[in-house]
Amino acid sequence: MLNWLRWLKTSVERPPQVRATAPAWRVLFDDTRIEVTAPQGTTKSLTWAQLGSVGISTTANGPSAPDLFWILQSIDRRTSLVFPMGAEGEHELLHEMQATLHGFDNMTVIEAMSSVGAAGFVVWQMGSDAAGDGSS
Length: 136
Description:
The protein has about 140 residues and is of the alpha+beta class. About 20% of the residues lie in helices and about 30% in strands. The strands form 2 sheets. The chain has a 4-stranded antiparallel β-sheet with strand order 6-5-4-7. Strands 1-2-3 form a 3-stranded antiparallel β-sheet, with no helix packed on it. The longest helix has 11 residues, at about 90-100.
């Protein structure tokens, strides 16, 4: 009686399952340099000594498109490394920035990640002191 249903189930070609692929963006760093590779293969880098600020820009494009972007800018503002949340290596870089950048503002990171609209957030700036102890 239900043979036709079994036949339909086995005879209809199913579309292949879409597998999650590795992130197209890649972030690498070591003791001296931060490097970002875009999906097209272009690479930009910045040394830790050149780093002047870390910011986050959000958009209203999510959740179907990236809606949070990290912006690492050089002191002279001539070089910016921009990459979306979810880039390969992003979490490791975040942990490194939290550990090494004095005054890195985790509360502002949380605020940015909660944003649903277009906004900009500065989470670290050279010479800043989020701890509020008055030292620079």
